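Why does residue order matter? Because the sequence determines the fold. Keep that principle in mind as you read this record.
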Amino acid sequence: FKVFCFYQRLKQRTMSKPLDHLDLSILKLLQTDAGQSLESLAKQVGSSKTPVWTRIRKLIDSRVIKQQTVILDPEALSLEACFFVLIRTSEHEEAWQTGFLNALNKRPEVMEAHRLAGEIDYILKVRVANARAYDNFYQSLIRDVKVFNVTALLSMEEIKYSTELPIDAIPREG
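Structure:
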């Protein structure tokens, strides 16, 4: 039943009409710079402003575009340490999962959290100033949530970073 409900919600969120070449071109440009003018976007995709604006509104309404934001430089803000935190738990009940999700949501240091298949149950991406700040985060987390094992991996260097989805890999319609 849960899978069916998830599928129904997912189906409601997607566009009723497949994305075409113009939609994908607009998305690719917006991922690169969402602050560019409508005139600039229209020129780059070879259309006029009104159809491009209509397409963008439809992409927003259908939640293909989730939000518009800015990307900050963590090092410029003294958030130089990035940890990948591997979590194993012996708890898999709904109440534990809810508590875990609540604990993560109230911690802004957690930039990403994923539930995994395999030996590790969860992986978190945590951004903090330094190792001491990570330890404070860790101590706070284990006070709130019972976990079986936690392994923290410090990223020594970010080799690639992107927020852009691979638009060119999406099958095109029309």
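The two ends are 35 Å apart (CA to CA).
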